[in-house]
Amino acid sequence: MKYVSKSEEDTYSIAKKYAETLNKGDVVLLFGDLGAGKTAFVKGVAAYFDLGGVVSPTYAYLNVYGDFIYHYDCYRLSCGEEAETLGLTDYFNGDNICLIEWAENIADVLPENVRSVRIIKTENPQERIIEL
Q1: CB of 22 within 8 A of CB of 99?
Q2: Less Cβ around it within 10 Å: N or C end of the chain?
Q3: pLDDT at 109 exceeding the cut of 90
């Protein structure tokens, strides 16, 4: 499915609706350029589960919200082995939902069954195409 987001609020709303389809154990890969809206998307997912405080985990690698939403940022990792060494893979397929930004950097250790969200910037600086 493709959606057009005309604002961060739209992205948030699309993500909140998408969250209705998520189940414990889901791993969702978030693709998009810097500033595309990946963290805004996570905010919408977290809001569906009545969780807040979402911020980019760029320097922490992983933020956990309500011991249910595991929000990864793998931008600074160069391979899956680094993710394993940091213990980041320990939470895949648990009683939680994992949302992973820059998952391509750890592709070799990702579970087989994952879901993907692609957020694409357009010529309009506020607009995004969101592919679910």
Answers
A1: no
A2: N
A3: yes
Q: 72 Cβ partners below 8 Å, 6+ apart? A: 57, 61, 62, 88, 98, 99, 100, 101, 103
**CA 39, CA 126: separation in Å to the nearest integer?**
15
pLDDT at 114: 96
In sequence order, which residues have a C-beta less than 8 Å from that of residue 110 and are 6 or more positions away?
27, 29, 80, 92, 100, 103
75 to 30, 62, 79, 114, 130: CA distances (angstroms) = 12, 11, 10, 19, 20
Strand order in the sheet with 97-101: 2-5, 128-131, 115-121, 27-31, 97-101, 69-73, 62-65
Predicted confidence band of residue 120 (pLDDT cuts 50, 70, 90): very high
CB 27 within 8 A of CB 98: yes
Residue 58 is encoded by which pair of tokens?
């760029």
